[in-house]
Amino acid sequence: MFTGIIEEIGTITRIERKKSSLKLVITSEKILHDIHLGDSIAVNGVCLTVAKFTSQHFEADVMPETFMATAIHKLSPGSKVNLERAMAANGRFGGHFVSGHVDGTGTIIQRKKKENALYITIRVPESFTSYLMKKGSIAIDGTSLTLFGVEERDITISLIPHTQKETVLAQKGIGEQVNIECDMLAKYVQNIIAPSGKSEKSATLDLLVENGFI
């Protein structure tokens, strides 16, 4: 489990590619001060497992499912990536619940500077729309952000100067893909109200009235 508060920007130093899998070698500094084999690290919002590490870098494997479902296969040596260790139980929770299980990718379609803020508009898959609402939470490349605009498939977020400096999102241009994880609580609620393939159990208005909830 993660919070979406990025700890460090790392650098991809080596990639071993197969047809639909990868081995990533990522140089970092801060997170290596407290890292162990088997730890979970969110890399651009994708939960990966530390398979090997030294004092300068760590290695992680990307399986075919992750390769296909995220934008991580578009990385190359020299790419900058957001890094976050799994949340500690004794710390402040500054973001929102982020699992590191990316729902899919979106495409940046607009960037606009407004005083100290950078507004970025991203087009997401139609299947995400039921999880999105203005002022709701979303994780983009692992960064916990607030939705400032939702229009059909287009969402707009705003980056403060700190987030522009401390994450990779501000460095991305129009046409680039980003990893999207919709709010976990919204997904659970949606599944309860209208579970896929189980419409007979859906929480319809009539059912709520019948059982005294309305």
In short:
The chain has 214 residues and is mainly β. Helix content is 13%, strand content 39%. It has 2 domains: 8-85, Elongation Factor Tu (Ef-tu), domain 3 (Beta Barrel); 104-193, Elongation Factor Tu (Ef-tu), domain 3 (Beta Barrel).
Explain the overall architecture.
Pathway: Cofactor biosynthesis; riboflavin biosynthesis; riboflavin from 2-hydroxy-3-oxobutyl phosphate and 5-amino-6-(D-ribitylamino)uracil: step 2/2. The chain has about 210 residues and is mainly beta. It folds into two domains: about 10-85, Elongation Factor Tu (Ef-tu), domain 3 (Beta Barrel); about 105-195, Elongation Factor Tu (Ef-tu), domain 3 (Beta Barrel). It has four helices and twelve strands. The chain has helices at about 65-70, 160-165, 185-195, 205-210; strands at about 10-15, 20-25, 40-45, 45-55, 55-60, 80-85, 105-115, 115-125, 135-140, 145-150, 155-160, 175-180. The chain has a six-stranded antiparallel barrel. A six-stranded antiparallel β-barrel has the order 7-8-11-10-9-12. A hairpin with a 2-residue loop joins β3 (about 40-45) and β4. The mean pLDDT is about 90.
